[in-house]
Amino acid sequence: MNLGPRSRRRILRALSLIFLTSLLAAQIQQAPQQPSSANADSVSSELVHQLEAIKSTALSDDYAYRQLAHLTENIGPRPAGSAAANAAVEYVAAQMRELGLDVHLDKCKVRHWVRGTETAELVDYAGHATEMQQKIVLTALGGSTSTGADGITADIVVVDDFDQLKTLGRDRVTGKIVLFNQKFDKQKANAGLGFAAYRETVGYRERGPQAAAQLGAVAVLVRSIGSDDYRLPHTGDSDPAGIPTGAVTPEDADLIAHLAAEAPVRMHLTLTPQKLPDETSYNVIGDLKGSEHPEQIVIVSGHLDSWDLGTGAIDDAAGVVMAMETAQLLQRLRLHPKRTLRVIAWMDEETDGAGSIQYRKEHKSDFTNHIAAIESDVGAAHPLGFFTKMSKAAAEALTPVQTVLSSIGASVMQEASHPPGITDIAPLSEEGVPVLGLMQDTRDYYAYHHSAADTLDKVVPSELRENAAAMAVMAYALADMENPLPR
Ligand SMILES: [Zn+2]
Asked: Among 349, 350, 375, 466, which one carries the catalytic annotation?
């Protein structure tokens, strides 16, 4: 049998997933076969029965996928401040009302930045033939200022890191375009540690523009943070630096670095994004009131805003629809948990986190009644379990839930000081609320993240169902356990 590269890749991935899962199992608190008696007390056998019903219903339900298709294909890209983001707010609020939730909108002010023209050419470099220009594939970073319609022309200086920039100093940076050429570690991503690779490089996107602007740079480019090899630029936000900022593809960063090693490289760069007046937007909040302790709250959530290049399927309509599916499943199965299940579609995660900041402001006095919060914001691929930030006692109380989730492979509970994908619920964590972030197989996530390829087809329906099952099972357990999760 002659396997194409895609099939070979799939088989290799399946094998390495088995390896990865067993590796994680060896390192991480594993779901026990038999819960200890103390843990068994936290989750009654009746509750386990209900959790099994939620899981099996979720695994054959297409509600989440239908909602995902609507958000990504009918509504489309949803950058904060855009008409589409507000259409998504209205749509999700209407859908939550249809589910019978008590819906309200948390108002917040968001920045409104829109992309313009984005082109770049190398106009002089070693071996340059007259009239020849090398096209560079790039995209503006969120918050970039404009070069003006005519663009700017300047020499490029290439640095790998902040230390090299500092060594160059003001004399060799002033008037130049700085390219930060820090490579994304694909091997980490392939081993399931994409978030670690992301954290190692994202600082250049976020703080690189300011650091270079302080030394007189006229524009900043960063090597895209992505694991793909298809010459795709990946956008993202950066701290305002008052100069044009963009992300070039890894291939173009290599090209520039190679040419710059031979002789000065001159670029003509045109980026014309605009900062429009701030807009009003909203978190969408839907409550399924608790039957015994309505004042106690368990949050399930994802963020509704997205970048504008793709349609924000894996980042993060997927998280929103998993949370909506959690409420839908409980309503469909007529399960009324003791505590309130609160579904939140957060606004503005990608830029300033205005929605999350607003929630803290408005609800902080009530955080003692927030029992736990769940967010999914690392895609929709096969779930492995949860990253957690909670006490040992809390984690132990959840071991019977791990047992229920082990049949779908989502039984890992990994305590983390910076759990991936919990940006919007981080303020709750800072105030002592136990938090959980869905842990997905992220080996493909950073190939599409913040790029034009973040589209519906990247979500495998059966894997989305597994994620919804994991979120719904965990949320219902938290909302219906005899005693609230200990802090
Ligand atoms: Zn996200």
From this structure: 349
- CA–centroid distance, 355 to ligand 1, in Å, is 13
Q: Distance between CA atoms of 147 and 266, rounded to whole angstroms? A: 16
Spatial separation of the C-alpha atoms in residues 443 and 451, rounded to whole Å: 16
| Amino acid at position 298, single letter | V
Amino acid, single-letter form, for residue 172: R
Distance CA 185, CA 164 (A): 19
349 among known catalytic residues:
yes
Q: How far is the CA of 316 from the centre of ligand 1 (A)?
A: 5
CATH of the domain at 313: 3.40.630.10
* Summary mean pLDDT of the chain: 93
d(CA 469, CA 410): 9
Are residues 74 and 174 located together in one domain of the fold? Answer: no
pLDDT in tens, 341-350: 999 999 999 9
DSSP 418: S
Q: How far is the CA of 386 from the centre of ligand 1 (A)?
A: 16
- Going from the Cα of 68 to the center of ligand 1, the distance in angstroms, rounded, reads 15
- Rounded mean pLDDT of 382-410? 98
| Local structure of 136: helix, strand or coil | strand
Same-domain check for residues 291 and 437 = yes
The gap between the terminal CA atoms of the chain, to the nearest Å, is 56
For residue 120, give its domain range: 116-272
- Contacts (Cβ under 8 Å, ≥6 apart) of 383: 408, 409, 410, 438, 439, 440, 441, 463, 466, 467, 470
Domain final residue pick, 230, 250, 272: 272
pLDDT digits (tens, 9 = 90+) for 330-341: 999 999 999 999
Could you tell me the pTM of the whole model?
0.92
- The secondary structure of the chain in percent helix, strand, coil, rounded to multiples of 5, reads 45, 25, 35
Identify whether residues 183 and 219 lie together within a single domain.
yes
Does residue 373 surpass a pLDDT of 90?
yes
Output the CA 194–ligand 1 centroid distance in Å: 14
User: Phi, psi at residue 273, to the nearest 5°?
Assistant: -70, 165
Residue tagged 């503005």 (tokens)? 348
Distance (angstroms) between ligand 1 centre and the Cα of 451 equals: 12
Q: Where are the beta strands (DSSP E) in 354-450?
A: 370-375, 383-389, 412-415, 435-440
Report the residue count for the chain: 487
Whether residue 265 is found in the same domain as residue 392: no
Tell me which DSSP letter residue 368 carries.
Answer: G
**Total Cβ atoms within 10 A of residue 329:** 25
